[in-house]
Amino acid sequence: TLAPIFRAIGNDGFYVESGAFTGEQHSNTLVLEKRGWKGLLIEPAPNMLRKLKTKHRKAHLFEGALSPTGSREQVGFSGWSIEDRRWKKDKKKKVKDDAYKVVAEPLAPLLETLHQKTVDFWSLDIEGFE
């Protein structure tokens, strides 16, 4: 369990949640935010971003992805979502795929923009879709 580590850090921690989803559902950082931590939520999926913005999280939000190369670039996603039941049911069938591209940034410049030098907890959620 991570509870002893979080207690040692106290209420002044900083988190990054890559793959923030809706901001609440499947969130690994909401409990930290409620304890006073500051953070950065990263979410590339337009349908999840719409939901995330309605949650009024107190964290900074980057609408994009993390760069796999260390440089700013465009990356593509298939359009499938973990909450899209078609994926499980029809993944072998030819179903319309709502592919999209987003800006991907390296993490370091995002943290520099926030004047943040350390990350106490990083939740990297890939779900196999990236």
From TrEMBL:
Pfam families: Methyltransf_21. Residues 19-130 form the Methyltransferase FkbM domain. Gene3D superfamilies: Vaccinia Virus protein VP39. GO terms for cellular component: endoplasmic reticulum membrane; Golgi apparatus; late endosome membrane; plasma membrane. One of its GO terms (biological process) is endosomal transport. It comes from the Eukaryota. This is Methyltransferase FkbM domain-containing protein. It comes from Alexandrium andersonii.
